Each structure stands twice: as C-alpha cells, then as structure tokens.
TrEMBL record:
A single MF term (Gene Ontology): thiamine pyrophosphate binding
Protein name: Thiamine pyrophosphate-binding protein
Keyword Oxidoreductase: no
Keywords of this entry: Thiamine pyrophosphate
GO biological process: isoleucine biosynthetic process; L-valine biosynthetic process
Domain of life: Bacteria
Residues covered by the Thiamine pyrophosphate enzyme central domain: 204-339
Segments traversing the membrane: none
Transmembrane among keywords: no
SUPFAM superfamilies per UniProt: DHS-like NAD/FAD-binding domain, Thiamin diphosphate-binding fold (THDP-binding)
Amino acid sequence: MKTNEGVIKTFIEAGITRGFTLPGLGITWSLPAFFDRKDEFELVLARSEQSASVMAQVAGKLTGRPGLLMAQGPFASSTGAFGILEAYFSSSPMVVLTDTSCYDGFAQHGVYQTMTGDYGAGDAFAVMKTMTKYATYATTPQEAIYGTQLAVKHASTPRQGPAAVVMRTNIIKEDVPDHPRAKLYPTEGYLRSTPMKPDGDALAAIAEALKTAERPVIIAGNGIYMSRSGETLSRLANREGIAVASSYHGKGTIDETTPVAVGMMGNWAAKSANRMVQAADLILVLGCSLGPEYTRFRDEKMMRPGEQKIIQVDIDPLQAGWVLPVDMAVTADVADVVSFLLDRPGVDQATAERRKDFISALKTENRYGALPHYKTRPGTVHYADIMRGLDGFLTPDDLLTLDAGTNRIWATSSLPLRSPHQLVAPGGIGGMGWSTPAATGAKVTCPEKRVTGVIGDGGFVMTMDAIATAAEQNLDVVYVVANNAGLGMVRDNLGNKAIGVNFGDHDFAKVAEGLGGSGMTVTDADQIGDALREAHARGGPVVLDVKVDPAASHRDCSDYDDLPDNVSLK
C-alpha cells in the first residue's frame, strides 16, 4: 500500500466519499489512488481553490460530516483559505488535504512553490495552524495516514471545524512499511464517541427560569442550525409563548412567520429582535457566541448582565460566558436541552397567551416582516423587490445561499423564512464571493433540493468560475445577481465621498452563456417571481442579472438607531 492509497482508504472508512479539488503537484500525485476507487469516491473538479474550499465547507455545513478540500500547498493556504476560515469561524466540519510542494528533496534549495518552512520557502503547516482546529505535518507514509484519521476525528468532534493534513510531497507515492514502528489501525476505532449528557440540575434550573419569567427570549444560534433542532425549538417556543430571536448563524432555523419569531438580532437585522432582547427579563442563549455584531457592538441598553438573567448553553464550555458574563453556563448539546424542555410541563395557556400578546405588539410597533415599496430609476429594481420575489417563491424544497454586503443585509433583516434550515449563509468571515460556489456545492451535496444563490455583482465576479463547475457537473442551480454596478454597502457608508466603489454595468447573462449556462436580465420588479420560476424550469446553471438601483441602500433596513458613539460601521 502506498501513502495515497492509505489516505483514500481512510477517507472512505470515515464515510467521506466526496472531495472538492483543483489539483497541483502533491495532490496530483494523490489522484491515481482516488481514481482506482472512483466507484466509491466522487471527485468534484472546481476551477479555483477559492471555490473548491467554499464547496467543501458548505458540504460540511449541510451534512454535519467533514467536507473535503484537496489542493496544492501554496494555494490551499492562500486562495483556499477563504473557505477554511469560514469553516473555522462557523464551526463547519472540514478536512484539508495538502502538500509541501517540495519537489523531491529540493526544499532547502529555494525551489519555487515550496511550503516546507525552510529558508526561502513558505510554511503551509504554520499557516494551517492559524485557521484550523488541528493541523499535522506528515513526513512519513504512516504519519500521513494516521494524521488523516486524526484530522477526521478533530473536524467531527464538538466544537466542529476544519482540520488539515500537510504531507511532505515526496512521501505521497511511497510504500507504507509492512511493519511500521508506529502501527496503523483501522479508522473506525478513532471515531467512536459517546454524546455528552447535560447536567440534570442545570436543565431543571433552566426550566424553572423559563416558567417564572415575564418576558423570556431565546437566542437561537449556530448550535440550533448544526443540530437541526429548529422545528423542536419552534414547538417549545410557541407552546410557552417565548420569543425567539436569532443570531446570524441561527437565521431561519424556525419558521419566521410564527407568532413567537422576532427575527435576527444585530445591526444589520430586524429591529423587533433587538427590541425584544432589550425588553426581556430572561435571555436563554442556545448555541450562540453573543459576538459583538449580535449585540450591536455591546450596546449597553440591549443586553444588561446583572439586570437581565442570562443563561447560555453551548457544546463548548469556553463559549458560554465568553463575550458577556452570564448567570448560568451550561455545557450541553442545545438539541438535548430543547427536547428536555419540550417534554416537561410548561406554563399555563393564559401565561403563554399574555407573552404572545406582548411579542405581537412589539413586532407590530417595529414593523416586523414589512417590505416597503421603493421608487427606483427606470430599468432597475430595489433589494426589497428581490426579497418580495423570493418570499413568494421559496418552498420547503428550496435552499437559499447568501453572500456579503447589501443583498445579504436585506435578506437577513427583511426576508421571512418559513422553512427551517433552508438558509445557507456565510457568517464566519462573511466574505464576498461565497454564495456562487456555495450554491454550487449545496446542489452537489443536496441534489434533491432546488437551490438559489443570491449575490452582488462585486462578489459574483470573484467566483463566477463556479458557474462552469455547475455546467460541467450538470447541476440545476439559479444564481440571482443583485447588480447595482458597485460595492453597495461601501458606497452607502462613504456617502458623497464615494471613490473606488463603482463598477461598469456588465452583462452577466452573457457571462453565464460563455461559462456553459444560460442567463436572463431582469429590469422590473414584477418580473422577479416569473424569472425565478422560468430559470429553475430551464435546467442547468442559470444567472438572473437583476439590475438594482445604485441608490438602494442597506441603511433602510438596518437597525442603526442609537448606536454607541464609539462604533464605526465601515
């Protein structure tokens, strides 16, 4: 057995049967072993390491099992860092297989591309350690195989995240010794684990706190998303009259049209969510870090330790009581906590209805779910029109990916999602260009779903190579490009001193055709719903080039009222 054969054997033993790649040098040398097992393993060829990394991260995000990125050392650790960093900050399980590109012993001679850390070389291992849960540098065949086993283990174990195997290039085609001193064992034994069980007294205390609170609110975070416990949470909250706000990662984990849903909290979010958290006497945080962007950068009126009772539940004990002090920190899987609370007797119906009346009045006062109509220049639409079109189109069979900037802010603040867990959005580094490869990767991972990606024109150009991948993979995906001919959010923030933010108005429908797909141009709000339906009926990758009025602003849907004086939103 050679190193590359042992590595692919390990992946298949671990249940990883798909990888995303743009191969080079050491990864190229790995491919013959993958080819020999092509009946058991699917290799998806992307057009850039950036796109491949996002596709792998999304595969992990959607399945809860590690997505696999295979890329050459200097590029896995640079352009491929886009998806790796998103996985790191979003706790998406992911494995990165890469190499040192050292050309059979020339690392010390300054050969180009080398990533061994020698003089004149880059250091792939050092870079990977900065953005992964676990990284290993394998210099022997057995180290590569065992390191791969450990990478899968680390990526899969709470708190999930990316793990990397950096192989010395010259070992990839070497034979594994018949009797290595460090014996190799089957992968299965390394991946066995027993789920943690929450403390019974802590669960009882949470239940009592919820029962006696006047205005309780639950903050649903990434823990709810990754555990797929949104529907259970919705049943609990509606029965008890508990308001549910979400973090960005928790957006859309419950039906946002239910009486208890108050939307996503933060600056670029629903005002009703922020006001509900501010009004609460009890805040139960489920799988959310309470990062500054969720609390309007520590707005002291919104969350008030010592005045409000704050209980934080997280699978990682370091997360609870990290950003804000809490009254109670509980280490547990949030799905177990929600199930426990649902199984216990709750408040009486009168109390639940009284709580719901308060939530309803607060939502009405803050115009929850309202999508105003805006006048736009002829031949253009507003972001609100795109959200209206999506609202009338999405069904439980849909997945929706988002990107960065104004298009995302309108979606997270103003688009009510009715089907739990249909949103696939970047919330780690939240970089431009994520949505197009994310939508492509989502369709590869969940072929039974209808997939739509929303992205701005700036982000689309960064990763439009993913359209070619979708065409080559025969994927039916629709990409909605909110084309405002510029960097909308940056342009908004610069006001009348805008410089370096305006693009030409490109024809992305023609671009799609050149990449193997098809395209349509949308210039009127009334066309959006029909265009979405027609695009999905066509088959293959389809780009909707939606012309957006450059004057349309993210500020119209953001909660910027009364921000602390020291906060900059550039």
